[in-house]
């Protein structure tokens, strides 16, 4: 009996297609994990800029200067991507959504980042990342206050675990050290609160504009206000030339922050959101603090004790379990009325 080569070949092709599909399905998770780790490296890069030596001290390097350099390197990329995206799309963008995206950008990428950078001067990179990672707690709280979202028992458990872990770190750990830990921690928690408000405000706009267009508009808006902030502050303190008279390593670090911790992770995250959804990407964000801890210990020589590990584990369990449970829920998209797009 002659074998049916057509059937055999077809089965082989189908098997190959399934294998390729499974392989492709893994890449969005890889991109999400890589994006989370690269973004978390920002804290390490900033601390590298503030390290003593190299011709400049932490007190001489203003946070807004480092932010302006970062945006100076990153801005051309976002402008180019926005122009290309708008040319390829026939979608009309109402002015009110553009203005709202700009306002969200100033909140999330200017104000939040400025407070974060100032806080990093005072505490370790590990503590900064751990404190900032608690922003979902504030998302839960503000969601209940402003949008009437019910706080579940799981949400309460996440809050208790997250801050119990932080309590362990502060009481028995070694990473809760720095120039001024109370002030630095307060600044980072403030940044987490602002970032939570940014997340809540951005959700609706991302649905209207798309994640890529929203990100570019928000970044461009933030870059504009950051540069203006830098100019005003520099002029009042001795001139722009003096503010930019920095060692080459500062420009190198700013470029690294711009590419590795701003541009690249933002697009990796956008790709992942489009493939596996925002909630699944949020779960992968758990890798961020872990990457920061490893890099801070190896590169910056920061301490990390057993109690730091216990506290970090408890905090990650609280936030991570909440994210995992949230990712299992079906993602609901609010319907958009045709008339609501009018400016």
TrEMBL record:
Keyword line: Cell membrane, Membrane, Transmembrane, Transmembrane helix
Parts of the chain that traverse the membrane: 27-51, 63-85, 97-117, 129-147, 154-177, 183-201, 213-231, 251-269, 281-300, 306-324
Localization terms from the record: Cell membrane
Pfam families in the record: EamA
Membrane topology: Multi-pass membrane protein
Limits of the EamA domain: 27-170, 184-321
InterPro entries: Diverse_Substrate_Transporter, EamA_dom, EmrE-like
Gene Ontology annotations for the cellular component aspect, listed alphabetically: plasma membrane
Highest rank taxon of the organism: Bacteria
The protein's name: Threonine/homoserine efflux transporter RhtA
Source organism phylogeny: Bacteria, Pseudomonadati, Pseudomonadota, Alphaproteobacteria, Maricaulales
